[in-house]
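Step 1: inspect the first sequence and its tokens.
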Amino acid sequence: MNADKLWHDYNKFTLRKAKQFGPSIYKALNKQIEYYIQTQDLSNLPQAPIQEVLTQLYTEVGRIWGINTYYRVLNDAGLKHDPTPPLQIKRRAAIGLNEEFIKAILDFFATDQFNTIQNITQTTRNFIREQVEQGIQNQLSLDEIINNLLSSGITKNRAALIARTEIGKSANAAEQIGSDKTGLVTTKVWISVRDFRTRLHHLEVDNQVRPDGKPFDVDGYQMQRPGDVKSADGRKVPGNLICNCRCCVGREVLRDKKTGLPLRKTGYTAYLKV
């Protein structure tokens, strides 16, 4: 595994997807604000537009990065180009593989997506409430308050932050799914960005290696991957360790010391059907 190349590939991919999904998230947030302007109802802000765009995001980002990981791990194991590989890889089954990854990523995010949508909606409520209260204090007219709600750059900034955060969460969750589907035994390594923007606790965990399934120690929270929302001990991971994270996960395939062949997970045969 070339950690620098992997991160640069990951960074280009996530930046491209953030540019793609940011505008859709912005529109979904604006629909919540427009609903309030029309109804003055904070309790029932529409959540369907956010749910729709997040489902599209998880599906596309997860599918692409999951399959990317799947083939990358196999390639690192030396199985992709071996004329007589221990695992038979058939690329003509790509459609079936796509479907597998889409189902796996949506199943993975089923609960987390609900919580994410609730949190996004609550933040919109808080934003609207603050803007209205501030407008009343400043003796603004209703039209002026509405104009402030619609013209605030906060919504656009939020959309960009949500896009970057959810894309990172989706890609790193899909990385685990892609690695699992190879049926190979791996270790995982946390790869951080080494620049002035990287938060201290992510620099501290940079190059930390763990057996697959074992968490990384990030500021006392046991996280399986960048973007993990729940610590292994059940605590909620705070947003300052998740939001806008640019870290990714790399893999090293473990080999049998005698034969040099990649180790397979005991009893794992699903990869033979791909």
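Step 2: inspect the second sequence and its tokens, then contrast the two.
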Amino acid sequence: MKKQTKECPHCKSKDTVKRGYFQTESKGKQQRYFCNSCKRKFIIQDAFYRMRNSKKKISLCLDLFFRGLSTREIQSHLKAFYPHNSDHSNILRWVRKYSMKISEYTDNLKLNTGSYVEMDEMEYHRRKSHKAKRGIDENWFIDVICPETKFMIASSYCKSRRQRDVKRILNEVKEKTNNLKVITTDGWLAYPKAIRQTFGISNKTHQLNVIHNQKNASKGDGFNYPIERLHNNIRARTKTFRGFHGSLSSANSIMKGYEIFYNYIRKHQAIGKTPSELATNIKFENPNRWLELIKMSH
């Protein structure tokens, strides 16, 4: 029996061999391995390990959700095409789980973006859970976009739009980009100090290391159209939610999923391709980009 280089998940040994197959209802035939060191059997623990549904079905649900279908509509769709249906609550859990899993990978990528970015915030309410007191929390979605590549560099769904929330997003932008020179924002008072503390002041010129360009629409300075267009797209997708429901982390995971959909899945009309094709070095080989991103993140 020919030895393989598959690492044993129990003892980390690579002295393993193939040892037959076993059939599963959702994933079909699975290869089983045997470790000669610890004498235990195992299967490859991929990103869908212990999931009772196939990777094709799960990635399909992610794609349908971010293209505009509700979880109940997806449940109805699955009932027509799959013998074993999935509950709408399970679909939402898949969306949250794999959105955060992919973002852990994509958030650490270095980007080939331009020297000019736009930053803005969008108010978006969140309904409290049934266990908590009834009411609505006014939360904020803060994001940064590169107008040249249309790539959303960083984003976060925050409880507030305080200076520390702005700084956290700016620090992420600083780590991902190399040649940033200009940041355009609206007139919100938290931006100047947050940008100064993040990017610092030059010892030679005694000026900011980046140019802060503030536009105040109420004073006739106009709007930051690229990022405002993105916000309109987000509102169009999330209007059926009637506000997020549940925890802040749940809302943030859904918005992270939309960031992935916007950057890597959805073709942008202005550039005729996805923003990731201009801003990253990722090359997709499979039309199912959700599945490829999940595998890359594992």
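Step 3: confirm your contrast with the notes below.
Residues 47-108+285-298 form one domain. The longest helix spans residues 88-106.
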